[in-house]
Amino acid sequence: MSETVDVVLIGGGIMSATLGTLLKELQPDWKIVAFERQGEVAQESSNAWNNAGTGHAALCELNYMPDAEDPSKAVQINEQFQQSRQLWASLIAKGVLDEPSTFISATPHMTFVRGEKDVAYLKRRYETLKQQPLFAGIEYSEDSRVINQWAPLLMQKRRKSDEPFAATRTPSGTDVDFGALTRQLFDHLTGNGAELRLNHEVKTLKRQKDGTWLVKYRGKVGQTPGEVRARFVFVGAGGWAIKLLQASKIKEIRGYGVFPIGGQFLKTTNPELVAAHRAKVYSQAAVGAPPMSVPHLDARMVDGEGSLMFGPFATFSPKFLKNGSLLDIVTQVRAHNLGSMLKVGATNLDLVKYLVSELLKSRKKKLDSLREFMPTAKDEDWELIQAGQRAQVMKGGKLQFGTEVVSSADGSIAGLLGASPGASTAATIMLNVLKNCFADRIGEWEPKLRELIPTYGDFLNDDPAKAEASTAATAEALRITA
């Protein structure tokens, strides 16, 4: 007879870590088992070098606000990041997380654009956002002297006469080491009764007559098989999630497919450059580029060491994970999603053209792209590193650039598909999993959830006083006051 547990988490990333932590706080008596196919947690999308570490709050990311007069999406993303901040602050106070500096640091968020069209757009965006309570403190300038004070590397040897340029800056932005955060959350879970099985890959999921799930897995060392029954299963396995959700045969996964897009960054640890640039600077995406390919020059702090990253440069691999299979993109095909996937290919020719141009881009051309941001960049200071794989959702003939939770009608299984904004909004995404999958318990859990996330259920942007008080309180708790 298989062992029965309350919760199985598949995947050792920030999503599983966040959900597991919430459930451990809400139901400390529940037995939780997590499976990770690699030898450590946070080795794919949550790894610090596989993402830009931006605390996504729509402060600098233009793709969250394509219409300069419509702030709704930007406000929504910011609201979600505030919930993550509040959760982290609460977990620090409870001793679940270590000192804030081990995973988060104050890093201003900037947007820098060139050309009359983009300058006009950025100014309209600024005029719209400065009226929103959650974007209080945003600054705008077309003055090279001001922008030089904000980010000197952008302006050195840049001539104003070449073309107009402009920038916005929000001092309250952050850099987040999601790898460190994930490891700390799992350390707490395993220290409080949860079990983490590394080097174990879940192979199949089968619903049983009693409503539980039979989870069959195999140890990568010795190929030892095993199985466990779970009352609830969460699939937080990045691009691998679609495979496992398809294996579960829940009807809700019908029609879904994913398209993998990889990336590279240029990275430097030159102390002089790191000291000169303490910001995350985003710009406009190229025509056809997916939102996650917006060019940005980012200050990073990973394991206490500062660095700069520029990119990303799109790459292509049929794998859904960096450590996936070359057959991933083919083995996901089903009769119910083939038509949708073919339509995506036919209607996204700009994306195809963009990916081809990126694949043909030499190291020299990548450095030339960097020099458009940073005119004084020297080849010898920068190295190319491979970032993570992102599996973008395909559904209904459309390529979607967000995250989407797919859950069964009975709430016994849920999985996460997609990428951006991802890790930054993990708290909100996992709260939605709780609401969808534990509807019979969410009411009794609400008081505890309000302890962890004081503004749970509220919209901060609707109340300027509450927005100011809440963001100030979490900034102090996380020690990220600029």
From TrEMBL:
GO molecular function, one term: (S)-2-hydroxyglutarate dehydrogenase activity
Enzyme Commission code(s) on record: 1.1.5.4
Claim: RNA-binding is one of the keywords in the record: no
Pfam families in the record: Mqo
Keywords associated with the record: FAD, Flavoprotein, Oxidoreductase, Tricarboxylic acid cycle
Catalysed transformations (reactions): (S)-malate + a quinone = a quinol + oxaloacetate
Residue spans crossing the bilayer: none
GO terms (BP aspect): tricarboxylic acid cycle
Cofactor(s) listed in the protein's UniProt record: FAD
InterPro entries assigned to the protein according to its UniProt record, in alphabetical order: FAD/NAD-bd_sf, MQO
Enzyme class, UniProt record, top EC level: oxidoreductase
Keyword Glycosyltransferase: no
Pathway annotation: Carbohydrate metabolism; tricarboxylic acid cycle; oxaloacetate from (S)-malate (quinone route): step 1/1
UniProt family annotation: Belongs to the MQO family.
Name this polypeptide is given: Probable malate:quinone oxidoreductase
Species this chain originates from: Microbacterium paludicola
This protein's encoding gene: mqo
